[in-house]
From TrEMBL:
This is Class I SAM-dependent methyltransferase. InterPro entries: 23S_rRNA_MeTrnsfrase_RlmA, Methyltransf_11, SAM-dependent_MTases_sf. GO terms for molecular function: methyltransferase activity. It comes from the Bacteria.
Amino acid sequence: MSHAFEDLVGEAASAPVDGWDFSWLRGRAAEQRPSWGYQRSMGARMERASVALDIETGGGEVLAGIGSPAPLTVATESWPPSLARAARLLHPRGIAVVAHGAHDPLPFADDVFDLVVSRHPVSVAWGEVARVLRPSGTYFSQQVGPASVFELVEYFLGPQPRRVREARHPDHARRGAEAAGLRVTDLRSEALRTEFHDIGAVVYFLRKVVWMVPGFTVERYLPQLRALHDHIRAHGPFTATTTRFLIEARAPASP
């Protein structure tokens, strides 16, 4: 291994990956952003809400970055390192942070929130979302779409079956929302360009987004990492397509 390869991989392998802050990748990777500006749009909805819930807040970075949260805002998170980071960021803003397992029922009563938001949830329990929304309440979410960054995934894992590539299709989200009694008022998707400028960026990304290549470690994939390092040095950034979709759904009004 060349010294440069060892340095890049070693630095990325030792970098902290708690929370949902990707600033470590600045200058080393670039991701095109969706045109709808989720954080800005979510912030505008927060200003009109009175009681709001952010599901899977991560380290609280997105919620902490808006101008004015709803007067009563609660965030949930399951991963302990992110939970602690979210508490540090959000408690000073008067936002409660609640530990909540991603597959557990939401720990709230029925008809509590007039706004529920979630950026990049691992999965959506549509029945639970519908349960905690007040009549005419809104669910607003940006989600990872189908086969996102699969050029990188398939580089390490090989070709993936169709059911895996289409697992996060926005049509599935529409059906889930409607089955829970919500009316989808907005659904749009975009395919965006992502670039990894060095092998350290690849290692950091796969350590942080652990479901992309399950069980990823540098040792396990060392030959592939070395080959990809050589490819980037010879041909420039490794490019992939990121997919995102935006969904907004509304609970029915009271009878």
